[in-house]
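In this section we walk through a basic example: taking a raw amino acid sequence and producing a predicted 3D structure, encoded as discrete structure tokens. The instruction is simple. Fold the sequence below.
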Amino acid sequence: MSTRIWLIRHAIVEENARAMLYGTLDVELCPNELVAQRPLHAALAARLPREATWVVSPLSRTARTADAIFAAGYPRSELTIVPGLTEQDLGDWQGLPHGHVAGLLSQPPHAFWPINAGEQPPHGESFPHVIRRVGAAIEHLAAVYPDRDIVAVSHGGAIRAAVAHALRIGAENALHLSVGNLSLTRIDREPEGWRVVCVNEMLGC
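The resulting token sequence is shown next.
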């Protein structure tokens, strides 16, 4: 028996949000990109398993992405909100333009992320915190839905954290993972442990 979790990063957010650290801010999706990426929605709708349990984070961009996949041909399903699958909380730095963050850091930034894995913004989370939170969430899903397919529409940081938990790698290494918008990542919970099937698969490209 295994639980198969199909992780999808939400669609591209609107342009103003992309210019800042938005973290857990409930920003809108980009309407033009939603239209342009309809082939990706259709590819996901065709690829994902039927009769799956669908879960999303509390942020509306994940539910709206699920709606776009349903509109592209996947049978509409009930969405369950899982708070543990939300994006990294960047605390007081959320909403700041990217260029304003460098002067606030206590450590050099990561090569592929605006802040170092160990950096904890005021009133926010470090990336190790995210790995522990997301790890607990996917363990809970695997226990509640044994031998099921789960489609989880989530966020780049949360998906990196899920893979880090599955592979038991550190936060610094996890930030080297690329997770594109509307990409597919799959991890399976087998009796022997977690197995990573694919990461950042881009369908319909």
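Looking at the output, two observations stand out. The CA atoms of residues 2 and 171 lie 26 Å apart. The chain is about 30% helix and 20% strand. In the next section we compare this with other chains.
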